[in-house]
Amino acid sequence: MRIKAIKADITALEVDAIVNAANTSLLGGGGVDGAIHRVGGLQILEDCRKIIARQGGCKVGEAVITSAGKMPSKYVIHTVGPVWNGGEKNEEEKLANCYINSLKLAVENNCKTVAFPNISTGIYHFPKEKAAKIAVQTVYEFLQEHKTIVEVIFACFDEENLMLTKNELKKLRQ
User: Fold this and answer.
1) Residue 104 needs a FRET pair 20 to 30 A away by CA distance; which of 18, 43, 58, 119 works?
2) How far is 17 from 112, CA to CA, in rounded Å?
3) pTM for the full model?
4) In total, how many domains does the chain have?
5) Could you tell me the residue range of the domain that residue 31 belongs to?
6) What is the CATH number of the domain that holds 144?
7) Residue 170, C-beta contacts closer than 8 angstroms, at least 6 positions apart
């Protein structure tokens, strides 16, 4: 299978692109976003500022791409996940769009390997089990149509997200 889940620091992975769970400002924040900006250095912030000047940030469910600065990956794909509001504001569709739009950018930029964090499961409070199901299913369906991506890694920060993601991957194999 071309999808796997590991417990890892996404900033240390040697892949073509890592995905950042960004905020709409693209200027860095907490969690994964803060770590990527810290480890990657000022180049990422400079690239984000150019995007902001061109289009004014990034909307929920959309994605943009920058260099990876000092990290071992080539690119950072920044996507803005939805804040969980009880499921009444199309959060599930918006989360799926984060994965789809990130993968589209990966394909457009000839990325063969991509690593995702657990988008929206931290301070945005998306239910982790629901998020894992959406992430795995969306990535799986995308890869059925796009054979250029060789591997997608879910780089889980904690044991709970790792277990939930691995459980969803097992369901695909059944």
Assistant:
1) 43
2) 8
3) 0.97
4) 1
5) 3-173
6) 3.40.220.10
7) none
